[in-house]
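@channel sequence for tomorrow's demo:
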Amino acid sequence: MNGVPFPVGPCVLALVVIAAIYDLHARRIPNWLIVIGLGAGLVVQCALHGAIDGMLLWAGGTLTGGAVLLPGYLLRMMGAGDVKLMAAVGCFCGASGAFEAALMVCMVGGVWALAEMLRHRQMRAGLHNMAAVLIDVSMPADGAPRDSGQGTGNTGNTGNTGNTRTRRPTTGTLPYGVAIAIGTMLSLFMNV
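structure tokens (generated this afternoon):
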């Protein structure tokens, strides 16, 4: 982001703080907040960079912010609200700023998840769950292992194909909106 222009910093901070508070309280990030963030981001980008460049920066940041966290949603490791919030953060920062912020968010979230597993003495279950996610990603919908085309590959595991079959209960879920807020703030302050 190489320096944060005036309206971007306060708008992003307000967005992530409100989202974090809401996520801590209700365990969800409301769509109305995302819509307000996306609208304000478009206005700010167009005011700072003109209509065309502002829309391009807005779209690039929105897509980049959402795309970095999308695999976590697809693997059922986070909610859709978290992905949408990161997209709304990205719309203020542009593509490169969104990527920097999303990487910081992933680091904060990973350290927090690791600390929670250690605190609740659930490291083995957490590692088992990560292995289950990786195995489920490598399996097709019918439950058979992926192969290079030789043989049938059918192991008889049909029916239950989600990773709910192999995941073990651990410490619960994290309000990832808080990790997004902390990671985004760290990213903004590092670029001031």
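heads up for whoever presents: Residues 80-119 form the longest helix (40 residues).
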